[in-house]
Amino acid sequence: MELQEYANLDYDRERRCGFPEVIFGEGKTAEQICEIASALLKRHDLVLATRVSDEKAAEVLAQIDDAIYMPIPRLLFVDRRENPIRTNNVNEALTTVTQSRTTGNIIVCCAGTSDLPVAQEAAMTACLMGSHVTLLTDIGVAGVHRTLAHEDELKSARVIVAVAGMEGALPSLIAGLVGVPVVAVPTSVGYGASFGGISALLSMMNSCAGGVSVVNIDNGFGAGQVAHRINSPSWL
Amino acid sequence: MELQEYANLDYDRERRCGFPEVIFGEGKTAEQICEIASALLKRHDLVLATRVSDEKAAEVLAQIDDAIYMPIPRLLFVDRRENPIRTNNVNEALTTVTQSRTTGNIIVCCAGTSDLPVAQEAAMTACLMGSHVTLLTDIGVAGVHRTLAHEDELKSARVIVAVAGMEGALPSLIAGLVGVPVVAVPTSVGYGASFGGISALLSMMNSCAGGVSVVNIDNGFGAGQVAHRINSPSWL
Amino acid sequence: MELQEYANLDYDRERRCGFPEVIFGEGKTAEQICEIASALLKRHDLVLATRVSDEKAAEVLAQIDDAIYMPIPRLLFVDRRENPIRTNNVNEALTTVTQSRTTGNIIVCCAGTSDLPVAQEAAMTACLMGSHVTLLTDIGVAGVHRTLAHEDELKSARVIVAVAGMEGALPSLIAGLVGVPVVAVPTSVGYGASFGGISALLSMMNSCAGGVSVVNIDNGFGAGQVAHRINSPSWL
Amino acid sequence: MELQEYANLDYDRERRCGFPEVIFGEGKTAEQICEIASALLKRHDLVLATRVSDEKAAEVLAQIDDAIYMPIPRLLFVDRRENPIRTNNVNEALTTVTQSRTTGNIIVCCAGTSDLPVAQEAAMTACLMGSHVTLLTDIGVAGVHRTLAHEDELKSARVIVAVAGMEGALPSLIAGLVGVPVVAVPTSVGYGASFGGISALLSMMNSCAGGVSVVNIDNGFGAGQVAHRINSPSWL
Amino acid sequence: MELQEYANLDYDRERRCGFPEVIFGEGKTAEQICEIASALLKRHDLVLATRVSDEKAAEVLAQIDDAIYMPIPRLLFVDRRENPIRTNNVNEALTTVTQSRTTGNIIVCCAGTSDLPVAQEAAMTACLMGSHVTLLTDIGVAGVHRTLAHEDELKSARVIVAVAGMEGALPSLIAGLVGVPVVAVPTSVGYGASFGGISALLSMMNSCAGGVSVVNIDNGFGAGQVAHRINSPSWL
Amino acid sequence: MELQEYANLDYDRERRCGFPEVIFGEGKTAEQICEIASALLKRHDLVLATRVSDEKAAEVLAQIDDAIYMPIPRLLFVDRRENPIRTNNVNEALTTVTQSRTTGNIIVCCAGTSDLPVAQEAAMTACLMGSHVTLLTDIGVAGVHRTLAHEDELKSARVIVAVAGMEGALPSLIAGLVGVPVVAVPTSVGYGASFGGISALLSMMNSCAGGVSVVNIDNGFGAGQVAHRINSPSWL
Amino acid sequence: MELQEYANLDYDRERRCGFPEVIFGEGKTAEQICEIASALLKRHDLVLATRVSDEKAAEVLAQIDDAIYMPIPRLLFVDRRENPIRTNNVNEALTTVTQSRTTGNIIVCCAGTSDLPVAQEAAMTACLMGSHVTLLTDIGVAGVHRTLAHEDELKSARVIVAVAGMEGALPSLIAGLVGVPVVAVPTSVGYGASFGGISALLSMMNSCAGGVSVVNIDNGFGAGQVAHRINSPSWL
Amino acid sequence: MELQEYANLDYDRERRCGFPEVIFGEGKTAEQICEIASALLKRHDLVLATRVSDEKAAEVLAQIDDAIYMPIPRLLFVDRRENPIRTNNVNEALTTVTQSRTTGNIIVCCAGTSDLPVAQEAAMTACLMGSHVTLLTDIGVAGVHRTLAHEDELKSARVIVAVAGMEGALPSLIAGLVGVPVVAVPTSVGYGASFGGISALLSMMNSCAGGVSVVNIDNGFGAGQVAHRINSPSWL
Question: What sign for the dihedral angle of Cα E190, E193, E194, E195?
Answer without folding.
Answer: positive
